[in-house]
Amino acid sequence: MDYPDDLELVSRCREGDIDSFRGLVEKYQQRLYRLIYGIVLNREQARDLAQEAFIKAYRSLGSFRGRSSFYTWIYRIAFNLALDAKRKRSGREMMEYDDTRHCDPVQSPGGDLPRPDRILLGKELRERLLAGLESLSLPQRTAIVLREWEGRSYDEIAGIMKCSRGTVMSRLHYGREKLRELLRPYLSGAE
Amino acid sequence: METSPKTACRETAKILAAYFDGELSPREAGLCAEHLRSCPRCRQANRQYREISRALVELAGEGGEVSLWPKLLQQIERESPAGQPSRTGKRFFTILRPAWIGLGLSAAAALIILFSGVLTGRQLPENYCRIESISAPEHNLMIHRGQSDGLTIIWLTE
């Protein structure tokens, strides 16, 4: 994704135009936040980290050379912050859920009627899915988030994660297989 | 050489995720599709990938919307001018209130008057008249000094 006008905004930011930075923040905050949320699975922490990423970017605008797009550049900042936070957090606790998450039922993909048992199944599925994501290794989960939430190609994921395309393929394969195993009772074809 | 159905399933399983993502070469994708047509087990796995994918997309939406700007601005304001990039130009004039600008310009005017003759003791010629001006964003200062009537007029305009 390339936004030539971002360079113009960056250039104006450097000259002290704070409104241009606001333009960049408003353009990318949602995507950045969602990426971080996918890694840390905690809304509050994701918001703080997204903010930190923008502050870091603002302080470092002088070093932005424009070789990549602004989004790719800030994306990497956010991505590294999220991974660091996740690693630190994983060291402290085995599993923690964000209790501010919505409790809206998620329909079982295989289901078609909003029957009470289906709604319960939806909630269970969501919890199981979160637990599944938590149980993946960080590289597996990151690959899945980049693919499923960001729609990144394998080559792009390889570039972001600094690994080969084959490694991306393997991470997605094993990650999905693990999720499939954990979610088996909720998927089509289940008894 | 023919591959056994079991081997074909094992081989397909390895590339099924990439097939699902549309990341295989046309040849590989063709082989995978061919196997899926004849294998209900692998077909089911492919279907389940799709279901997981849909559930993940739903989950992504749970993060909700964010609006980071108000807090970001606060933080930037707190950190400046130490933060980068420097906003010196803009900040300088937003910190200075009009009253301060007026005082500053008046002081500058006083200095100009002094240096234009008083301090040096130089006698100004009769009918001497000098006009100095200083400009700053949104403020202008103009000084008129005439020797004959001993008047010094200072204009401060916005």
Number of domains of chain B: 2
What would you call the structural class of chain B?
Answer: alpha+beta
Distance, first to last CA of chain B: 91 Å
Global structural class of chain A: mainly alpha
Low-confidence stretches of chain B: 86-98
The counted number of beta strands of chain B is 3
SSE order of chain B, one letter for each helix or strand = HHHHHHEEE
Structural domain tally of chain A? 2
**What name does CATH use for the topology of the largest domain in chain A?**
Rna Polymerase Sigma Factor, Chain: A
From the 3D coordinates, which CATH architecture of the largest domain in chain A would you assign?
Answer: Orthogonal Bundle
Per DSSP, what share of the residues of chain A sits in E-state strands of 2 or more residues? under 5%
Percent of residues in helices of chain A = 55-70%
Q: Could you state the CATH homologous superfamily of the largest domain in chain A?
A: RNA polymerase sigma factor, region 2, helix turn helix motif
Tell me the major beta sheet of chain A. none
Largest interface: A-B, 56 and 47 residues
**Overall outline of chain A:** elongated
Q: Strand percentage of chain B, roughly?
A: 5-15%
Written account of the structure:
- The complex is a heterodimer of chains A (191) and B (158).
- Chain A has 191 residues and is mainly alpha-helical.
- Chain A has helices at residues 4-14, 18-40, 43-59, 70-92, 116-135, 138-148, 154-161, 165-182.
- Chain A starts with a helix and ends in a 9-residue tail after the last helix.
- Chain B folds into 2 domains: 5-61; 95-157.
- In chain B, 58% of the residues lie in helices and 14% in strands.
- Chain B has 6 helices and 3 strands.
- A 3-stranded antiparallel β-sheet of chain B has the order 1-2-3, covered by helices on one side.
- In chain B, helix 1 crosses helix 2, helix 1 runs parallel beside helix 3 (40-61) and helix 2 packs across helix 3 (40-61).
- The radius of gyration of chain B is 39 Å and the shape is rod-shaped.
- Mean pLDDT of chain B is 71; it is low at 86-98.
- Classes of the chains: A mainly alpha (191), B alpha+beta (158).
- The interface between A and B is large, with 56 and 47 residues.
